[in-house]
Each structure stands twice: as C-alpha cells, then as structure tokens.
Amino acid sequence: MSDTRVNQLRRDFPILDQEVNGEPLVYLDSGATAQRPTQVLEVERRFLENENAAVHRGAHTLAALSTVAFEDARETVAAFVGAAPEQISWTLNATDAINLVTGGIRIASAGRGGPRAARLAIGEGDEILITEAEHHANLVPWQELALDTGATLVYVPVNDRGTWSVEDAAALISSRTKVFAFAHVSNVTGLVADAKRLTELAHDAGAVVVLDACQSVPHLPVNFPAIGVDFAAFSGHKMLGPNGVGVLYGRAEMLDALPPARTGGSMISTVTMEASDFMAPPTRFEAGTQPVSQVVALAEAVRYLESVGMDAVAAHEAEMGQLLLAGLSGIPGVRIIGEPAGVPRAGLVSFAVEGVHSHDVTQFLDSKGVAVRGGHHCAQPLHRRLGLTASTRASSYLYTTREEIDRFVFAVGQIRGWFGVDA
Predict the structure, then answer these.
(1) 377 and 365 in one domain?
(2) 213 and 346 within one domain
(3) DSSP-derived 3-state class of residue 233
(4) What integer pLDDT is reported at residue 342 of this predicted model?
C-alpha cells in the first residue's frame, strides 16, 4: 500500500493520533492487540443502543433483531476464512477454542461422546505432536491432555534461529501421531508455516491437525478448507475486533465427532433429570449467554479488512517486516530472532539487545513514544532454547508507516549507549 493509502486508513484509528511521553505514538504491538477502527466501535455501539437482547431465546422484536445480527456475523466471519457458517463456533478467545478441542478429545478418550467421538480418542502409545516454538495457548492444553490420557507429547525442535521446517516435522510424524498442533505464523519469529503441506503429511499418517491461526487470519489471506486442517482457532482482538470473542473452526465431520467440553444452557436439545442431548454444531459449543455485541463488532472488523483487501494487508506487512529486519540488522549489539532479512516472514521482529533486559528496552522505547512488547511472549520454551529469558517484539499492521519504522529503528540504536553498554 502507498503511504497515502496507509495514512488514509490511519484516520480511522483515533487512538493512533496522540502523544505518549511527549512524543507521537508509534504503535508496534499489534501482535498482542490490534487497535480498532471507528467503524468497528460505532457498529458495536449502535447494536447495543438499538438491538441488544438475548439471542435464540425470545420471540420479541429485539430478540429477533439480535439473533439476525448474531447469525449474519457468523456468515461474514465464516466466509472470511472460506468456511460455511455451521463450521465456526464463537469462543472467548483462541485459547478457549483450543481448550474446547483438547477438552473434547479428553472426553472422547474416556470413552464418552458416542461412536463418532471414538475417532478422536487417544491413549498410551499415541503421540501428540507440537513444536518448540508454540505459544503457551497451543502448548499447555496439550501437555494437560497428554497427562490425562497417557499419550506422549512430542515436539519439533527449533534451530539456533528459533525456526523449524516441514522436513523437521515430517521426520517426527508417524503412525503413532494422533494430533499435530502448530502455529500458522509464529508470534516470536514471524515464521509462516506451510500449513497445507504439513496438514497433508499429518493426514497421510492418520493424525488430526489443529492450527493456531491467531497471527495468520488477521494478516494473511486464509482459507481453512483449502488448507485442509481439521480444527483452527483465532481471536477477535488481534484483527481489529473486540476482546472477549474468538473463533473455533472445524471440518463438519470433525465437529460432529467432537464432544462439547463446556455444557449448560442453549447448547442442548433435550434435558431430563437423568441425561441431556446436545444440539448439532456450531450451537453445541456455545453454552450459555454469548458475547453478542462482540460478535457483531468482529464481523464489522472483517468487513473493514475485506474493504482494504487481505492481499494488500499481507503485502504491506511483508514490507514492514523486511524494513524492521533491515533496520535492526545494522545496529551493533542487537540479536534478531528468526530468519535474516530477505527470507519471507510476517510483519514482526523479535530481538534482544546485548547487556539490556527486554523490559528496560521496552521502557526506553516507551519514553520515545514507541509501544512494543517485552517479555517471553508466552513462548518460554522457545526463548530457553535460544538462551534467552525474554526478548522485545515489534509487530506491525495495516496502519504502520515507514516513518514509524524509521523512528523505532533510530530509538533502538540509542539503547546501548543510554544504558552504557556500548563499549
């Protein structure tokens, strides 16, 4: 996108037009939470002011309007990832979505859920494959599932740059692999995994594939059915939408087989004092009162992204990622995590400054008006493998400008001198 186009988009994000510590804000923490355009904020407000009511639960006018908006949003979000409406269920966030999958497999592994669930059962002698680069949301639930079922948790190791390859994963996929769960895009290294090829390899071995799509759906054109994954998860707050809403995608036959890990009202067809029957997907996975206004706002965020064009978003962020890499690569004492400049990656870069803790790096940059993320980014094993306790991450989005990248790089270049460790 041209500078003119990016600056036009920025006018839709009032939060970006402010000063922090006396400096114009440079927001490079979209990998954690993206900012919301006025259009998304206004849609949620209008819904709450005019249509707010419980969905699927009343015959009055507001209930009908609310239900229509709720289900229209499902169609919009589903189409954005190439899915049918019945293939996506609303969750609290991506972590919640992954836990619904592991929880359902846990129930199936205990012999419950009926004949269809049996295909998901795992136990001793089976393996759950992940990678050493996973976000804790796609690690801890699988650890717990392995402990509960007796399955073995196996991981694809990363190299000295913190990345892994299709070949690395293929070497570990076997007839014992029952689940392969991995991130489409790493939130630390920016690695974009070949999800389609990896899915094919896992399916050839009879494994179920679960995709953490938190860092791909907001930034790349994504079509889950075309990739072929069995389940996928992503969050609203990383794609210009609100907090408190996420999405679980599943292939129809896999959703039919997955027992609900969360039960209660709204997801049942019949309840007696002795037993309950559950509704078909996607309602089966939507127990209790849903985040209706957040769902409506997420659909508006999708429409906003579609108006910009996901190809344009991806191209812009690829450029921003290479600018970040090129700028940081020229600064002495800065160690970049991930592949070097020139290798395709998402629009984010994590790095360590020699002699300065990431929290100090973050605070120094904040004093210059630059917002970045410091810490282990919910990826402690990856950092441990690289000999780091933490790193600093700069992550771009469709509203990031080249001038902001320049300001960030200039500020990073001052850090070691300011802390007296540049000798």
Answers:
(1) yes
(2) no
(3) strand
(4) 80
What is the tens place of the pLDDT at every residue in 128-142? 999 999 999 999 999
User: How deeply is 32 buried, as exposed, middle or buried, from its count of CB atoms within 10 A (0-12, 13-18, 19+)?
Assistant: middle
CATH number reported for the structural domain that contains residue 20 in this entry: 3.90.1150.10
Cβ atoms of residues 287 and 310 within 8 Å: no
Residue 152 dihedral angles phi and psi, to the nearest 5°: -105, 130
Residue 422 — pLDDT band, cuts 50, 70, 90?
Answer: confident
Q: Bridge partners of 23?
A: 20
Q: How far is CA 30 from CA 335, 366, 372, 386, in A?
A: 21, 15, 9, 24
DSSP state of 243: S
Q: What is the model's pLDDT at position 344?
A: 86
Q: Give CA–CA dist 5/7, Å, rounded.
A: 5
| pLDDT score, position 302 | 98
144 lies in the same domain as 281:
yes
Q: Which residues contact 403 (CB under 8 A, 6 or more apart)?
A: none
Question: Which among 246, 252, 285 has a CA at the least distance from the CA of 268?
Answer: 285
Q: Name the strand (E) or helix (H) holding 100.
A: helix 94-109
- Determine contact, residues 300/271, Cβ cutoff 8 Å: no
**Nearest Cα to 318, choosing from 187, 219, 185, 214?**
219
37 within domain boundaries = no
Decide if 38 is inside a domain. Answer: no
Confidence at 112, pLDDT banded by 50, 70, 90? very high
- How many structural domains are present in the chain? 2
Confidence of residue 388 (pLDDT cuts 50, 70, 90): very high
Same domain, 242 and 373: no
Buried b (16+ CB within 10 A) or exposed e, 254-284: bbebbbbbbeeebbbeeeeeeeeebeebbbb
Q: Which pLDDT does position 423 carry in this prediction? A: 55
* pLDDT level of residue 111 (50, 70, 90 thresholds): very high
Active site residue 378: yes
Looking up residue 117, the CATH number of its domain turns out to be 3.40.640.10
Prediction pTM value: 0.97
Main-chain dihedrals φ then ψ at residue 375, nearest 5 degrees: 140, -160
Largest Cα separation within the chain, whole Å, is 75
In angstroms and rounded to an integer, the radius of gyration of the C-alpha atoms of the chain is: 22
Expressed as residue numbers, the domain containing 132 is 43-306
Exactly one of 170, 205, 378, 388 is catalytic; name it. 378
